[in-house]
Amino acid sequence: MMRSPQQQLPAIVSSVDHLATPKTVLSEQDLRQALTEQTKKAHLVLHFDINETILVGDVAGGDTREDCLNKILAKSAFVHLSSNEDNNIHTCDDNDTRQCVPTKWWDGTPICSDSHKDGPPPLYTGWDWPPNTCPYYRTAYKKKAKRFTLEDGACYRPLYHHMDSLLCHQDDKESPWNHLLPAFFHTLDTLHSLDVDYTLILRTFGSDLKDVAQAISDFSQGKHPLFPDFKDPTLQLDSPEHLYRGRWGTNEKGK
Predict the structure, then answer these.
(1) Alpha helix stretches (DSSP H) within 86-232
(2) Exposure winner among 11, 31, 40, 167, fewest CB in 10 A?
(3) SS3 assignment, position 35
(4) Is residue 13 part of a domain?
(5) CB-side exposure of 74: number of CA atoms within 13 Å?
């Protein structure tokens, strides 16, 4: 069934070149082969800052799951920066874009437009920003990012719902499975199936490390609803020796 224009999901590109030439998506078999070849050369280290990476929600920052999904999209939805003298914005310098009040998405579509006949403007995930653009999240509208798809980013609302549907929805709203990306566990499952030797490091400024460690321990015993057959005792992180708490210190000068 075809989506109506208003329901089309946006393209996701990591280079301006991909707008003209669609990015090739590797099959899972190709990805597995590439991963196997790479890990033969070096030990793999997976180092995650938990919040807004594998954990959709940020207790330390006061963000709910819904807030984080909106912010994820606001950080990848790029806007066009005017270069006229009125707002004196000529570059993507961070100090400038925070004062910018954009009126167009990076493809020239008005932000206030309700019509996107070709679907929403593509989301951009590249490291280098295209000229005269920046993320919506880096503008004066950052304060609205937690409600992005309910306001200026309404054209991305179908993608918001799609992303939300890919997360777990346990009846217990406090269940960690409702906030941890299934892709994270899929990665661990794939590494295990390929017998890849790796080190997993998790860090956070919040108080959620213990809960995440417990969730990974439960996953290692087949308790994740999406991975009931997974078993790996090396991922049982629920003992004290696996968790460390650090504190900022001061030097001799009190700094």
Answers:
(1) 94-97, 157-166, 182-193, 209-219
(2) 40
(3) helix
(4) yes
(5) 24
Residue 9 token pair: 């999901």
**Tell me: the pLDDT tens digits for 176-219?**
888 899 999 999 999 998 888 889 999 887 778 888 888 999 99
Q: How far apart are CA 241 and CA 222, in angstroms?
A: 22
Q: What is the domain extent for residue 105?
A: 5-242
And the tokens for 190? Answer: 């794939």
Q: Where are the alpha helices (DSSP H) in 40-100?
A: 65-76, 94-97
Quickly tell me which residue has 């890990």 as its tokens. 39
Tell me the residue length of the chain.
Answer: 255
- Say how far apart CA 98 and CA 101 lie, in whole Å: 8
156-182 pLDDT, tens digit each: 999 999 999 988 887 776 778 888 999
Does residue 236 form part of some domain?
yes
Instruction: Tell me if 250 is assigned to some domain.
Output: no
* 3-state SS assignment for residue 253: coil
Task: Look at residue 253 and tell me if it is in a domain.
Answer: no
For 13, 76, 202, 249, the CA distances from 54, given in Å and listed in that order, are: 21, 17, 10, 28
Output phi, psi for 134, to 5 deg: -160, 165
* Sequence-separated (6 or more) residues with CB below 8 Å from residue 91: none
Q: What is the distance between the alpha carbons of residues 188 and 200, in angstroms, rounded to a whole number?
A: 9
Total domain count, the chain? 1
Residue 141 confidence (pLDDT) above 50: yes
Neighbours of 152 (CB within 10 A): 20
The pTM is what? 0.77
